[in-house]
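Example record

The entry below shows one chain as it appears in the dataset: sequence first, then structure tokens.
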Amino acid sequence: MTTDERDILELLKEELDFIEKGGYGRSVRTPWQSKSTFQDSLSCINYGYPYRAHPCSECHLLEFVSPEHRTEEVPCHFIPLNTDGETIEDLELKDNQAKLEREVREWLRARIKQIEEERAELASV
């Protein structure tokens, strides 16, 4: 059950902004270290902790993960990003950062639009 009190819409918008500003690019200080989508941004409830202070089951992103992948070490990496069902995990294995970021951006835009439309509909009732 999600216990993250942050607003999911704001969380997704901030993640999109982070990606669009090059947030997952290689660091000048540690260019040999790749960054992990979602885990290395403020979207992650464990961001900034040297260990996992919170279980992933408390994260909003878990609602986008199919039940069979919710117990993975990094469940948010199993969110289906496109109609082909590709996940962050799949795209990281292909080592195509540009495609990974493009697919995550598109997925974020689609989820943001969906949530905004749902909230607008609820507000009009």
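Notes for this example: The chain has one domain: 8-123. DSSP finds three helices and no strands in the chain.
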